[in-house]
Core-2/I-branching beta-1,6-N-acetylglucosaminyltransferase family protein (Hibiscus trionum), 411 residues
Amino acid sequence: MKQFEMTGFARDLYSRIRRKFHITIYSLFLFSMASLLLLLGTFTFKLLLSEGSISTCFPRLNRFSPPSTTSSYSYILCNFGFTSFPPHPSFNSSSELKPLIGASRDDDSVWHSVTDDRELMRRAAMVRPNATKSLGNRTPKVAFMFLSRGSLPLAPLWEKFFMGHEGLYSIYIHTSPEFIDEPPVTSVFFKRKIPSKPVHWGNVTMVDAERRLLANALLDRANERFVLLSEACIPLFNFTTVYNYLINAEQSFIGSFDDPRPTGRGRYNKKMLPRVSLADWRKGSQWFEVNRNLAIEIISDDSYYPLFRDYCNPPCYVDEHYVPTLVNIISPEHNTNRSITWVDWSKPGPHPREYVKKDVSMALLNQIRQGSNCTYNGRTSSICFLFARKFHRSTLEPLLRITPILFGFNE
């Protein structure tokens, strides 16, 4: 009897131990699975965060946010459609658009960190002129594009020029990549530098910088006119006069003429045939002004640009021939064949005259402003130049003194 009781007790004990062992094993299994899921979740979250997909699925309401650059992977995650594809091609992560920090102007400009010129040109060319119809009654703007080595020594004069006209202009500055200084946050030039590359006088990098400026300005659909300026340029009239002159112009302003001299036709290279002939060859001022259609044509060109890059080298200066020749070939009827930036080439040499402090007077500026006649929208006009160069930094003080007369207002 006792033996039977011991046997029953042993069986009961064994059954309990076995049941607890199974429960323990099952609990450990559940704990392991939960831990694994937690690790996978953490890894997935970090992966999405690193690729920017979290912000794509749950966007923040930010007026300066760039267009969505959703990749195929994040698009599937957000929409749970494993056979879906993104509505637009994904944008290269190395050149993702990012909003401008500290932007103070009320515009929709897309500021970015794009360093790949081909991607930048492609992106800008997609913003076609007909897209501006969606702007409704919004006022068109003029893009002022400054090509400079570093700071703008005549910036205080330009500050007075732009003052009170916010919303009618955009500013873009191409400097040496090593130049990192910024003007005060209250300046119209604050945070207006675009991603830039080194520029060397006399070679194709000068044209590369011009195309880079145009492409950046084209990203803002409100920009309708595009004027290229240097750090040595000054405005000859007040903003209202300049704005109305450009916005109402029926053609672009690109110096383009047939120069029979060695410094003109003599620079032509027969290796450009058959695409560019001697009859097509033109020379003109580097400082141009174009409308939106021509700006897109210039940055989209991949037929003529390689020829100038390869066969126009000193003593052929590509910045004096590429744009004038290109426009003469593709759209001569849309160009006035004159520049609106006055330069004194009366002295022989590779560079124009540079004005210094003692040269500045209202008489000099009036001579530049009113000393010529030209055609504007089919009619004769005495206003032919809106800007002038080359003014040394020492001219700032006398220029500021005559600003009330120059711009027609009292300080």
